[in-house]
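Posting this for the archive.
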Amino acid sequence: MQETLVIMLLLAAGVIITIYKGINIVPQGEEWVVERLGKFSRTLKPGLNIIIPYLDAVRQKVSTRDIILDIPQQEVITRDNAVILTNAVTFIRVTRPQDAIYGVEDFYLAIQQLVMTTLRSILGEMSLDEALSNREHIKTKLKDQIIDDVADWGVTVKSVEIQDISPSASMQDSMERQAAAERERRAIETTAEGNKNAAILEADGKLEAAKREAEAQVALANASAEAIRLISDNIQDKELPAMFLLGDRYINSLEQISKSQNSKFVIYPADLQGAIKGMLGNVFKR
């Protein structure tokens, strides 16, 4: 009697275990890959699923949500032999779990390595300045180049973001020294240009002043000649007008000298007329 009860209990336990193994509830956001006798059988979708116990087995549970895949920082040599550091992040989603499981040994590692090598190849074709200023172009090109390879593994690339592209420490030091030298060169050029413009302006000012002075001298000479002509015409005497003008200017000059701070005394000749005649000399002795 007891042996019969034990057998019945064992059979009941076996039935319970069999039912437990046969009924599978897949949560939303996952798909389970099922193998039958070691061979891919089917993929279980979210919800209640029944499999044949002992023949079927869940090979792997795959998340179908978006996966954030971090791409480690790496050193890249650009076309102009500059060393830069870059890293990225990739958003992927498994669309065919059986391909992701059977298409590659580890699709996480495979995608990570693929992104790293492709990114290194893209940056290697660019100069340092292009790499630092074309992040959007790099992102687009990177996604276009990996999307087909990744699709073979049942994975879709949602987006690729370049987190950082920066020169290495030695390159940053070189760039800082180069920028400082460039700023110094521009400062010297600006100072030289300013000095040149100032010299040109000063020379132009002197030239213009000389021209004006010459014009003034010509105008003064013409005015004097005209004055002499008018006086001569009126008084019919050639000596007296010249003496008058020369005496007038002589007196004006003495007045200007008297206004100078360095002049203490101004002495007028007693015989002003004789002095003027002496200046004229033999001009009118004919």
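The chain has eight helices and eight strands. The longest strand covers residues 155-167.
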